[in-house]
Write a structure and sequence with these properties.
Layout lengths: L8 E9 L14 E9 L18 E11 L6 E15 L4 E3 L12 E8 L6 E4 L4 E8 L27 E3 L2 E4 L9 E7 L2 E10 L7 E12 L1 E5 L6 E3 L6 E5 L10 E3 L4 E8 L2 E4 L15 E8 L2 E8 H4 L7 E4 L3 E10 L3 E9 L6 E4 L7
Parallel strand pairs: 12-23
Antiparallel strand pairs: 1-2, 1-11, 3-4, 3-6, 4-5, 6-9, 6-10, 7-8, 8-14, 9-11, 12-18, 13-16, 13-17, 13-20, 14-15, 19-22, 20-21, 23-24, 24-25
């Protein structure tokens, strides 16, 4: 068993582009504030092993202020430069563009930039007074990412069509007294939701046998919460019992109700979750006792014979009594399920999108008919 540490952080860069020749006139030396992006795929990964923000979204939003001295009072004051400025990816030039253009102010002492995506969707907003992003209320439905090739988690694909993959960039302060306007201003976007990926494969079947996944559910998940950036507890989870839900698995395509399972691992579920703690609890295989904690339910068929079983979700990642599994911001937990003719075996790891402990769970005589 091995653990994979992947951090998915999206980075957007503001570049300053000047004219080819040096000019004496201050007015003629105006330098345009421009944007470029890249997505860091893993911790320590170099830029040449990265993908662009456009792999997630083709638009992001920027807020920005400059600090200048008031000529009358001689006091510093902040003046808005970017007000919910939409920056779009141009596919023809492979660059980020916006309008109207803004230029660096040479008398400004500093600039402050804030960026996020997708601002304005599902109540995702920016508080200009506090200079933070927030979600007053959000419900994660647990819809799965639909991909054509699902032998491994699709690390760079966006959930924007089935869910909202909220990302916030680290705030940037540019000290104009020490940094050139030509220097890059980097926005490093980070996911604020968590992610769960579940892969399934079969083992030990006869060549003429077939296996079908009929249902895969994750129960006991809190689906609703509010988010405020920069607070110690950034996510405030709902305590309403109605917001504790069961997430249903995805299917291979829009028309199928089941998934054909082969000896090649297939990620049948890749969903976003509100960050939360999944506690260990005792769960009976037949589901008569599930405990007050997230659990996994699996139902499958070998030829015409049907099987099902229930498991505590945290236990599948190696948690024992008194321990828990954390779904943290920007982390994804991967669960690998191997269904055999006599036992279901589990292998689990968690990585980012950041790091989590290895998980290993072997089950003997665990199939419940």
């Amino acid at each position: 068993m091995k653990k994979s540490l992947l951090i998915l952080a999206t980075v957007a860069t503001l570049t300053a582009c000047s004219s080819d020749s040096v000019r004496e006139s201050i007015a003629e030396e105006s330098v345009e504030i421009g944007f470029s992006t890249y997505t860091q795929k893993a911790v320590g990964t170099k830029a040449d092993n990265s993908v662009g923000l456009e792999q997630y979204y083709t638009e992001f939003t920027v807020y920005g202020w400059k600090t200048v001295k008031n000529e009358e009072t001689d006091a510093n004051e902040d003046q808005k430069v970017f007000n919910a400025q939409s920056v779009n990816f141009a596919t023809d030039t492979k660059s980020w563009t916006y309008s109207p253009k803004k230029f660096w102010d040479k008398v400004a002492s500093k600039y402050n930039f804030y960026a996020a995506v997708p601002v304005g969707k599902n109540g995702f907003s920016f508080d200009e007074n506090a200079k933070i992003f927030k979600l007053d209320a959000f419900t994660a439905t647990g819809q799965s990412l639909k991909v054509e090739k699902a032998q491994k988690p699709n690390a760079s694909a966006s959930f924007k069509t089935v869910e909202t993959d909220f990302m916030i960039a680290d705030a940037i302060e540019r000290d104009m007294t020490t940094q050139s306007a030509k220097a890059l201003v980097e926005f490093k976007f980070k996911h604020i939701l968590s992610r769960l990926n579940i892969g399934v494969k079969c083992d030990g079947l006869e060549t003429n046998q077939t296996m079908t996944l009929n249902s895969l559910k994750i129960g006991g998940i809190v689906s609703k919460g509010a988010f405020i950036e920069n607070e110690k507890e950034r996510w405030n989870l709902s305590t309403e019992s109605s917001d504790v839900v069961t997430l249903v698995n995805a299917v291979e395509d829009a028309t199928a109700n089941t998934v054909a399972i082969t000896e090649e691992n297939k990620f049948v579920y890749q969903g976003l979750l509100i960050p939360q703690e999944a506690a260990y609890a005792v769960v009976s295989l037949d589901g008569t006792e599930k405990g007050d904690a997230p659990y996994l339910y699996i139902n499958y068929s070998i030829d015409s014979e049907n099987f099902y079983a229930y498991y505590n979700l945290a236990a599948l990642f190696g948690a024992t009594d008194g321990e828990s599994l954390m779904f943290n911001e920007g982390y994804q937990n991967n669960l690998y399920i191997t269904i055999g003719a006599s036992a279901i075996e589990f292998d689990a790891d968690a990585y980012v999108w950041q790091d989590s402990k290895d998980g290993n769970f072997d089950i003997e005589e665990s199939i419940k008919e």
